[in-house]
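Q: I'm writing a short explainer about Beta-lactamase family protein for a general audience and would like to include a description of its predicted shape. Could you first generate the structure from this sequence?
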Amino acid sequence: MDKLTDYLKSTIDAGEVPSLYALVSKKKRPLYSFGAGKVQEGLNKPPSETTIYRGASMTKAITAVAVMQLVEAGKLSLQDPLAKIIPAFTGLEIFAVSESGEESTSPTPIAPTIHHLLTHTSGITYGWFGPEELDAKYQEKELNRLFLPTSDTLEQRIDQLATLPLKFTPGEMWDYSLSYDVLGRVIEIVSGQSLYAYFDEHILSPLGMVDTHFEVPQEKANRLTELYTFDADENLEKVPPLNRETGSGTQRDFLEFSSDYITEGNANYHSAGSGLCTTAADYFRFLQMLLNKGVFEGHRILSPDTIDLMCQNHTGDFPIYLEGHGSGYGYGFGVVTEKDEGTDPSNIGSISWGGIFNTYYWVDPKEELIGILMTQVFPFAQLPLRADFKRLVYKNING
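A: Of course. Here's the predicted structure. Afterward I'll give you a sentence or two in plain language.
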């Protein structure tokens, strides 16, 4: 895969990303791995499969697996109303803004369910993508401050979220959201464990995911890659820690973030939608479990039928506005459908997602193929890295 290596090197040389690590597996065998750049300034060490990255929304697939374990155990139903588990979500209302700017709410005719949360059709949002008036309410509660150190717990954040109106009637559209953080709280209540304790006992330890955490242990800090953004001249610059005097981080586009959110003060805030750090080696084990229909190295995590259910498109023709993941959405990730033929090199039924700091993965069941690409930079929508990486992998395996 010399052309792939040359391309990945070129992105470093062009200053598009500070460093990266790529891993590809086919039919349970390593096909390709490559690291370039430096994990940290001052350490002349390129990334490897054990370099730790802020996985952000790569957390969602793990949360979806945890939810489905509880469904299999009979402790939870996909059709359970959210308010049955968290009563604070009783009596939710729909937010509206008139043309004159007048705000109003009305009772929702449909209560959000576990299925709605899993598919981002709950009416909950992130407070980033509008309408501005509703985003402001999320910002007042500081619910959009996901990537800054905090002393909050997941329970406290979800209690705040429950006081806000929904963006739309559940089931009427797809909107990327804090739904998975809510699911994290559901897991805690139903299981009687903290989210990390549940993850560790039922998913991470059985799969041997030894470097996946909500807060990076101090002894592993030298393996955590540095976080970057772009300055006004589109040059890479390192993201600093939180400014302790002002309490502010780095602001780019809609996002405020700091480099230390994963190391300072987040031991109690287990964001089920965006909180985990992980390595390519760890996440490969998780993805191989999905590809193996729920089992890895003798450990059964989920049944084959449940894996199949997770990998179906559950959102119909709703637009999935985060591109590069197929035109459907399952439980925790995007799904490639017939609509994507000719535009996505992966096969129908492939799944994929990534994190806001430009981590990315996909699984192609037909090819028995797994691809992982890890880097740490935001924003990245202007970069073709993910699409080019995927395209070049398929070009090499298909000739």
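A: For your explainer, you could say: The chain has a mean pLDDT of 96.
Q: Perfect, that's easy to follow.
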